[in-house]
Every structure is written in structure tokens, then in C-alpha cells.
Amino acid sequence: MTPFSARSVNYDWGLVWDNRDMFWWGLVTALQVSAVALVLSMVFGMLLALGRMGRRPGSILAAAYINIFRGIPALVSVIWVYFGWSLLVGYNFSTFQAGVIALTLLYSAFFAEIFRSALTALSLGQNEAGLALGMSSGRVFFSVKLPQATKIAIPNIGNMFIGMVKDTSVFTVIGLVEIVRVTQNLNATYFQPFVLFTTAAIIYVVLAFVLDFMFRTLEKTLSTPTNGFFATLLTSRRSTRINKLIEVHGDS
Amino acid sequence: MVCALCKISAPTEQIGVSVATNAVTDSTLGEVKVELRDVRKTFGTNEVLHGINLTVSKGEHVVLFGPSGSGKSTILRSINLLEVPTSGSVKFNGVEYGPGDPTEESVIRGRPLELRRSIGMVFQQFNLFPHLTAIHNIALPLRSVKKMSRRDAEEKAAQSLRDVGLLQWSGSFPAQMSGGQQQRVAIARALSLDPEVMLFDEPTSALDPELVGEVLSVMRRLATMGMTMVVVTHELGFAREVGDHNVFMEEGRIVETGGRGFFESCSHPRTQAFMGSVL
After folding, report:
1. Which of A136, A225, A249 lies at the smallest CB-CB distance from B113?
2. N or C of chain A: less Cβ packing under 10 Å?
3. Which helix (H) or strand (E) is A155 found in, with range?
């Protein structure tokens, strides 16, 4: 007779509801680490993309960074930062800081490639039109190229963000109290692995659905021509201004 | 309200042309706006412009035509430095913007940004910004280059759109407009910055035959108002109508040039053969 036969286990699903606060805070922590890392990764990713598309030696350094950090697993990265960097720089990173840095190091490399492909997808004529109008290169980048490239990149950014949230699960090894750590702690107390880890899995799946929906909505909102409820809401003041101008100049 | 197209003042000087290599000069030259001297452009080992000399005077309408790959667009793009010549002089209002003439010792040099703020350009593929409405395609450079407030920029953009008959399309995105309408917005966008010279790079080549007329009509009005224009086109009917200075090019060289009546009086066999195949 095996020690853990199916019949001998009592599935206590009530545990999930009783400990909903802990799951909730685990979820919030995972989202906080991912969200901060998302912003930083997008900024560094864009800089890396521009570096890679630029001249040597910047392009070589950017390419080297991208190829190295795309290949490092999140688990190795976070241990390297939390234990290795702490010794190197003589500063004890908090688990939150280490998680953010680890994710940023890895995902900057992915975002660099996403932004590079999005910028490459733009027609050269967009840059030329901006320059021919007398706009500076910086203004052309921020007002013409970046908005268009971001729109192209949004579906991939959404995918990356879902991946980032999932990768926070390995940060349990440094003690970050995210969803898996919460699950492990509860399991140590109640020994209900099936119930608790099923719950953790469901949380991740539901979260992925929600994030996917949010990024799809964002994609739709930023699409041109304007499409959807949020886009109409956001552009209503602009539309009113334009209609007023049409009215005024149509009469003059 | 004052019409933007109407605000372009007629030239006070008499119109004239000169193409140095081909020794076409006119004794009635106006103020020189653009001067290209011995302009060469090389891509890798392939030289696509072999020492071009061209002068554009105020109020003049220069038409560049010739077979594909002859260097017409490269000349046009050299004028506003979208293509930087490998060597040669590109002067605008007497200020040097190109690599320059090594024999010329004292010359005032300018930055490409200043040059482009005085020269408007219209592209074959329109190149409107697809993420912006028609009115904001025009307002963006006004805010960026002229440092206008949002309100003033939108006001001026609306006037510019009205001048090309597209005020009702102010809130539309380029994808919602026909090619002809997009090109008219592109012309309005360039004109709203009050350029001294307008460059047109095959502005009707990407349009359906039915839409060519509306763009040519706007260009014709502009020419009538005295705007200095350099036009690359295959619309030789239009060229014959507005061209004060017609330049036929082939393989990176100017083959033949002439003023009004050029299309009836051209003498070079290659020019005649080309026009015979097009007209």
C-alpha cells in the first residue's frame, strides 16, 4: 500500500478561500515586480535596439548583450543578481529589487529585438518625410517613428509581459513572496499540494487571459482609424476640436 | 481668411534659367535660390550623378524628366540633402550646404536642418504619417518647426486643408483617404511651413489616372502663384504647361535642356526618342 493513495487524501478546497489574502498579495507582488521590470525593460530594450541599428562599436556591443542575455534562464539570473551581485557591489538587494533587475536584464534583450523589428517595419519614407519637413532627428523619432513602432510591437509586448509574470515564479528561490512562494508556504502548513498548486496554476492562467485581454484592448484603442469604446472616449475632445475647426473654416 | 496658396507671392524678378554644363543661360535671370555645381553621387562603386550643374531661380518652374534610373530623384533629394552628394556644391540662397567646392575659399556654410526648413518636398508615396489625422499631419511639423501652440497649429492646418479642398477630411486618417487626397494633404503639409522652394518627386506616379488631375490642379495653381518649383515627373503635358526650364536626363547626366517650347524644339535624338515614346 502506497503512503499517499488517492483515497487517503482529503481535498480541502476551502483552504483556498480561507487564505485568499495570501494568494492575493502573492499575485500583487508578482504583478508589481513584472510591471516595474516591464517599464525598465522597454526603455533599455529600445536603447539596445537603437544601438544595434546604429554604428559600430555600439551595434556590436548591443548584439553581444542581446545574444548573451536571451540565453540565460530567469532562475540563474536572479540567483546571480541576488547572491553574486550583492557580493560584487557590497550591497544587499531586497528580493523585490533582485527580481526586478533579473527580469530587466533578460527581457531587455527580448524587447530590443521586438523594437528593432518594429522600427525596421516602418517605411523609410516616414523618416524622410519628417526630415524633409525640417523636423530634427529626435523629434522624428519620438513623434513619428516611436508611436508607429510601439503600435506594431504591442502584441509582442503583451506576450512578453505574460512571460515575465510567469517567470516571477522562480523567484521563490530567493524568498520573494509571490504566488508560488505563497503556495509553498501554505503547503508546508496544510500539506494539500494538489489543491494549492492547482489554485496557483489557475491564478496564472486567469491572469494570462486578463493580461491578454488588456493588451488586445490597448491594441484596438491605439489602432487607426479610431476603433472601439476606449479609443472613442480618449479621442472625443480631439474630435470636438476638429469638428469645431471644420465648422469655423467651412463658413469663412 | 487668407488662402495659403494665395499667400505665395509672385516673383518680383524676371524668371530665368541656367544649366552650366549644357551652356544654357538666360540673360533675364532672377534671384538664384538653388545652385548645384559639379554634384556627384556614388553608391558603393556606382556613380549615379556625374557632375550635375543646375541653377533654380526665384519663381522658376524646373521640370526634370527622363527614363527611370537617370538620376532625377537623386538630384531632387540632393537639393534638400536627403541624399548627401559625394562631392560638389549645393547652395541655397548663397549658403553652402553640400560638401562644397574645394576651390572656393570663403563660403558661408549652413546646417541641413536650416536648409530643409526653407524647402518643401512632396514624395511619390505621399509619406503621410499614418497614425495621425490629416489635420495633425500638418499641425505636427508646425508645432515642431515653427514652434506654434497646438491651437495655432491646428488653426493653420485647417486653413491649409481648406486651401486644397479637404477641410471636411480634417479628422480622417490617411488610410481613409484616396491617393489623390493623401497627396493633396502632403502638398498642404509642405506648403503650411511657407517654403521658398517646393520639390515634387513624381507626385502623381502612384495615383490612379482618374486621381492625377486633382493633384496636378493644385500644383498648377501653385505654379500660377509664382512658387519656385522643381518637379520630377512623367506628366509631360503638365511639364509643357508649367515648365520654364525643362531638363532631360539619362544615366546621371543632363542630356538636353530648354525653356518654354522645349517639347516642340528639342534637338537631341535621345530626347526626341523618349518624348516620342511617352507623349
Report:
1. A136
2. N
3. helix A146-167
